[in-house]
Amino acid sequence: MAGWYRILAFDGGGIRGWLTARLVDRIDAAAPGWWSRADLLAGTSTGSLLALGLAAGHSPRDLMALYEQHAPTIFRDSMLDNLADLGNWVGAQYRDKPLRNVLREVFGDLRLRDLPRRVLIPAFDLDNEHPDPTQRSWAPKFFHNFPGSDSDGDRFVRDVALYSCAAPTYFPSADGFIDGGVVANNPSMAALAQTQDPRNGEPNPPLHRIVLLSLGTGQPLWRIEGARHDWGRAQWLGPLIDLILDGLMGVADYQCRQLLGPRYHRVSPRLPPDRIIRMDDWKRLSKLRELAEQVDIKETIRWIQEIWAGAPRARQAKPNAASTRTRRHGLSSAESGK
Q1: CA-based max dimension of the chain
Q2: Which of 151, 162, 216, 222 shows the shortest CA–CA distance to 186?
Q3: What is the pLDDT of residue 222?
Q4: Cα(214)–Cα(233) distance, rounded to whole angstroms?
Q5: 304, β-bridge pairs
Q6: What are phi and psi for residue 156, nearest 5 degrees?
Q7: What are residue 306's phi and psi, to 5 degrees?
């Protein structure tokens, strides 16, 4: 493998996926076609729509239009539904039929194996239905189209996207799966790990040949003030989902930064308290537009041009034991008579 192995990863975040699509589009204006060079596209929840959409040949502007046209239908709520669900206490906030219809319209009968690029889509399996009762449990599931022994290439793209988007309390579970955000709302580290799986069925890129761009949907400045909180289930229930989804993003960011160093770059603009946009708040799309235009992407463009699009530097050979010993004594090979 002579060049870089490029990974493009998209966080979850509901309607805020529009902001990510716009950032991809803005970067594309300065470095045309940069995202089309990705070898692996990873996405969680709304990020799965972006990863799978780009892999299927849709442009960033196509995906922006998808949010603009369909978000009001996907996140449509009704008084009758609220009454039936006791105000979201005993049922999901939204039906998933509109989302299913949109996914079928966008992806049709396309299967993961039909995509021209590798993809990785996190979800969470509520019951693995293992035939051995001692092995039966819930577990994370990472759908992918690598050709190895555990490939999910026969899965419909529309189904995988639905599974990854089935956010608890917002949508019902789908075929036993819920939103991958509960385990990997930032899928960067999961994507990096997938490239090293010995079951991949193709040569794995060495770590020093991997570059990774991670794109978030905006980082809300949540906080819980106070040094002590003697809370029970009732008090933790409200903030817990946001805490899990946002907290996990930082874990993957830390891990990738440590493993890849300058070959890793992340963009996730902070959302101050007066600009927090919840994942279903499609009525504030105009605010997202403002935010997307205000994000400073100069450093990201520089990284794209110098690292992502550049050629890897040759690794310096490690010195052999003999040369190391002579240098420790202040002697070169010539000076030592060798």
Answers
A1: 91
A2: 216
A3: 62
A4: 33
A5: none
A6: -70, 135
A7: -90, -35
Please tell me the predicted confidence (pLDDT) of residue 43. Answer: 98
Bridge partners (DSSP) of residue 7 are 40, 212
User: What SS3 string covers the chain?
Assistant: CCCCEEEEEECCCHHHHHHHHHHHHHHHHHCCCHHHHCCEEEECCHHHHHHHHHHCCCCHHHHHHHHHHHHHHHCCCCHHHHHHCCCCCCCCCCCCHHHHHHHHHHHCCCEHHHCCCEEEEEEEECCCCCCCHHHCCCEEEEEECCCCCCCCCCCEHHHHHHHHHCCCCCCCCECCEEECHHHHCCCHHHHHHHCCCCCCCCCCCCHHHEEEEEECCCEECCCCCCCCCCCCHHHHHHHHHHHHHHHHHHHHHHHHHHHHHHHEEEECCEECHHHCCCCCCHHHHHHHHHHHHHCCCHHHHHHHHHHHCCCCCCCCCCCCHHHHHHHHCCCCCCCCCC
Dist CA 199 CA 296 (whole Å): 40
pLDDT digits (tens, 9 = 90+) for 206-217: 999 999 999 999
Question: How many Cα neighbours within 13 Å face the side chain of 287?
Answer: 15
CB-based burial label for 60 (10 Å; 0-12, 13-18, 19+): buried
Six-digit token pair at 142?
């990472």
Q: Hunting for tokens 């990997």 — which residue is that? A: 184
- pLDDT at position 231 is 78
Low-confidence ranges of the chain (pLDDT < 50): 78-80, 82-86, 88-89, 316-317, 319, 321-338
pTM, rounded to two decimals: 0.85
Tell me the CA distances in angstroms from 65 to 17, 55, 110, one per residue in order: 11, 17, 20
